[in-house]
Specification:
Length: about 350
């Protein structure tokens, strides 16, 4: 049972901006209604400019969230694009290794990098939701599918299984205070889609946002990303990936098919597709490039025996489930379910 949630801003500092005060207030009320106490870590509300300039303060908050025994679960405010900059402040003197202990850690998007940091230290984590993106949903309530998984996590500290959502929602264009109480536009969801391979496969799941993983090998966004990630050996070795299921989902940047192929080919060059037991692919935002991505996946993986499960409700498209990293998962595409434990 989770009683106290620690709220951290490890990437973007937007949670501290005046423009999202209405979202912060809404999200805190929702957590309190679930019977949760919230500890906002000291620098989580310092704002975008401050946290951009001070990655060491973001690192301090993560360490504090692990060492504070009153915090039962760490909840990321949102993603961003530069959490890799925390690496020296967490690993140069084993700072994070000295602090970590097993407690639920939840985030997605650029938080992919934090998941890999914690995986490196043997910590099991949860991928798929964040405070601003899910708890602070501007409708009168959280999206029911997303709420189901968040409630299960805070009540049991686990996720037992993930099934497909009956609906998917268009991304909001307006997040201002005027949008409070407005519903998202919903569409019927077709369920998980097995693109190839066996309908049943298993392994521990690891991965996350494709753009974040790609940035570990390409310095176009930030020139020092590749060197820092290599220096601290952040991307798991092939022996570590062996038998795992690779989770990939795309961000709100909605990469073009050409870019999608480039990112997949970059991952393929690591040899990862030769050792994993399967792929789980998140639904593209607003279903843009839905069919194009499918074909690129098949062409790039180029191994018809490797299972690929597509259109999973994880990542940037709403609603969002929560997927545990570091526990055995069994995929059953015939039943449209992923079971854990």
């Amino acid at each position: 049972m989770i009683r106290t949630v620690g709220l951290v801003s490890l990437s973007s500092g937007i949670l501290g901006e005046e423009s999202v005060e209405h979202e912060l207030a809404l999200g805190l009320k929702r957590l309190e209604r679930l019977g949760l106490q919230v500890k906002i870590l000291p620098h989580a509300l310092k704002g975008m400019d401050y946290l951009k300039k001070h990655p060491e303060k973001r690192a301090e908050d993560l360490i504090s969230a692990f060492t504070d025994d009153s915090i039962d679960m760490i909840l990321c405010a949102i993603g961003g694009d530069d959490t890799y900059r925390l690496l020296p402040y967490l690993f140069s003197d084993k700072q994070l290794a000295k602090a970590v202990k097993q407690k639920p850690f939840l985030g997605f998007s650029d938080t992919t990098i934090n998941h890999l940091m914690l995986h490196k230290l043997g910590i099991k984590t949860f991928y798929g939701q964040s405070f601003l993106a899910d708890i602070c949903e501007l409708a009168d309530d959280m999206l029911p599918y997303s709420f189901h998984y968040f409630k299960e996590l805070v009540e049991t500290a686990t996720i037992s299984e993930v099934r497909s959502s009956e609906k998917w929602y268009e991304e909001r264009l307006d997040y201002s205070e005027k949008a409070l109480g407005t519903e998202r536009i919903a569409h019927k969801n077709q369920g998980f889609e097995l693109l190839q391979g066996a309908a049943k496969f298993k392994g521990e799941i690891l991965g996350g946002c494709l753009e974040s993983l790609y940035d570990m090998f390409d310095g176009s966004r930030y020139p020092d990303t590749v060197d820092l990630c290599r220096q601290y050996q952040l991307f798991p070795s092939l022996s570590d990936w062996k038998g795992k299921i690779l989770l990939l989902e795309t961000s709100e940047e909605q990469p073009s098919p050409i870019m999608y192929q480039k990112m997949l080919e970059t991952l393929k060059a690591t040899g990862i597709f030769t050792v994993i037991s399967g792929l789980i692919i998140g639904k593209p935002l607003n279903e843009l490039y839905y069919e194009e991505y499918k074909q690129i996946l098949l062409d790039t993986v180029a191994d018809s025996k490797l299972p690929i499960l597509y259109n999973v409700n994880v990542g940037h498209a709403t609603p969002r489930c929560i997927i545990p990293f570091g526990v055995m998962a069994e995929v059953d595409a015939d039943e449209n379910v992923i079971r854990f434990g």
